Amino acid sequence: MASEFGFHVVDYVIFAGMISFSIGIGVYSACSGGGQKTTLEYLVGNRRLKMLPVAVSLVVSFESSILVLGYPAEIYIYGDQLLWTSVGFFLAMLTAVRIVVPMFHPLKLTSVYEYFELRYKSKAPRYLGTIIGILYYLFYMGIVLYGPAIALEAVTDLPFWASVFSVAGAAIIYTSIGGIKAVVWTDVLQCIIMTLGMSVVVIKGTMDVGNIGKVFQINYENLRLNYFKFDPDPTVRQTVWSLCLGFYFAGFGMAFNQATVQRISSVKSLQEGKRIMYFAAPAFFIIALIVNIEGLVMFAYFNAVGCDPIESGQIKNANQLLPHMVVRIFHGLPGLSGLFLASLFSASLSTISSGLSCLSAQTVQDFIKPRYKNMSDGKATAIAKVSVFFYGGMSVAVTALIANVSGSMSQIAASILTCFGGPLSGMFLFSMFCPWATKKGVVIGGVISMIFVFWISLGQNFFTSKPSEPWLPPNPTDQCFLDSTFYTNTTLMTNSTVYYNSSDWHPSHPSNTSSRITTYQQEMEIFNTIKAQGIDKLFSLSFRWFGAVGLLLTIVIGSIVSLMTGYPAPDEVDVRYILPIGDQLFPFLPKKARRWLEFGVDFDKRRRWLEQQSEETIIPTDLYGEIGVELDEVKDTLLISYASDLVN
């Protein structure tokens, strides 16, 4: 049993109940319907899943522990500018309605990387996209597993690796046996738990501070409400431009994500696919807003207490701030800390299960089926289920690597994931909107862009001599000695009795706000006098721009290579796999301008093809099993039948 001030038995019961319920949904999904015996049912739910649960599942797929723990910690340290990332993501999702859904839903793809082979009639771009996508998800899942483990190790008796294996094990079990249906419905459960857990923390924390007005007043006085920093310097850690525009481009990494396309492809109609994105954009914004407020409440709470946990040395990692506050505000209220624990693990479970489902789909569709065309669907489904265990083990291995990287979770995630997401988004946009794109262009552009951004990321994290930007003024620590009675005779922060006294603190910060602000301003003056030299100038680029750099560099290099090596004539491009950029992204332009942006391609052929598409052309899943026809063969037959109309 945990200590009086830590987690109680009822808290662990609530947490265990959530894990058990998630596994139960997987078992039910495995036994219901067709029993997950075909790849179509296992990977995309027979393309007959309901829109609303799929939309909720998409939202929580990207609401991992990075959001729940990393964002409040980032706001505590650098202020609430992070709100602009939600604006950027919101705009990226709305743009995806005009790009991702119209392109991928009519093609009925299971793996998003099938698109590259269809577009270029070559497996090389498809394999490259799949490999980058696998690396993206392995690192994503590794970071997500690391977050709650390092945080909860500090405030509970739960060892680091026990937390990692609990999340990974539960996700592996219900994803492997229940497929996409289990992922979607557990995501719905976890979304409810996450939202409830975060809301309770915000409400109770605000009550302890006084009221919401007091929360904003404290944050304003301590420079946390720094929303309007418009500095155009790309080396500044975060500004309105780097957060909003940078995350807009980075958001395409989620829009072209296997999880997104897999969910769009699992609903019946194009309109339902669009409704998923229309739901996801504002829903994610609202939940991100709650997380931002959570960060402000957390700072105000420790200000009111008069004891900054980081500056006082009570915790070693900023990602531990939120759990540290939770065990304090819910002291004497058994069950509420468990609700937070459940919400934190729900955030991780939703992302891990989604990632495992995506990697399973990519393995079967991109590696197994193309090589073994005569393999039975039952055997392919079995391989998909086994691959879940393999990728689950790989994600745990990545967690061991991530544990050696310092920094907040949001910075670690942004600097690593955009190395893969940016170039991959560039490959898709280049292929969709540039009729001159060739397979050599997209492959060389993608590889060079990924290597370049990854090199900058490594240099910034390990090889630069320029120091990190100073944190905003911390909370006071002059009340920590009095506050230490809270920890006496407890195992809250370690597994032994804890006593704090004034000699334990890092340099003491007074309660006088102006004094702490003055110290911060002096630190910033010194920081601004340090000029990057040589290669450090490149490594000084804000990690918020990594996604944009990777995306744009792929398009530029891809275009140069394509134009140098010979590009196809406009009438040779298969219009099923490209989109008119004017109509999709700039519908407000005059018709003449939009026609010019078609670059000589006759998109009327595409419009006629889409008009011929109808839901009746999709043969029911059960018929596949009866006549022994593979989904890919049916899909290719349908597309070939339309091709003859396109040349007329």
Fold and architecture overview:
The chain is mainly alpha-helical and 648 residues long. Helix content is 69%, strand content 0%. It is built from 26 helices and no strands. The protein has helices spanning 9-31, 39-44, 51-61, 65-78, 83-104, 114-120, 123-155, 160-209, 212-221, 240-255, 258-264, 270-305, 321-329, 336-371, 377-402, 409-433, 439-463, 480-483, 513-529, 536-539, 546-565, 581-585, 591-596, 604-612, 621-627, 631-646. Helix 3 (51-61) crosses helix 12 (270-305), helix 4 packs across helix 14 and helix 7 (123-155) packs antiparallel against helix 14 (336-371). The chain starts with 8 loop residues before the first helix and ends with a helix. 52% of the residues are buried.
Key attributes of the depicted protein:
mainly alpha, 69% helix, 0% strand, disordered N terminus, disordered C terminus
Which band does the percent of strand residues land in?
under 5%
What is the assembly state of the chains in this entry? single chain
Structural class: mainly alpha
Major sheet: size, sense and barrel closure?
none
Alpha plus pi helix count:
26
Order of helices and strands: HHHHHHHHHHHHHHHHHHHHHHHHHH
Gyration radius over CA: 26 Å
Mean pLDDT: 80
Helical content class = 55-70%
Stretches where pLDDT is under 50 for at least 5 consecutive residues are 1-5, 485-507, 615-648
| Overall outline | globular
How many individual β-strands? 0
The rounded distance between the terminal residues' Cα atoms is 75 Å
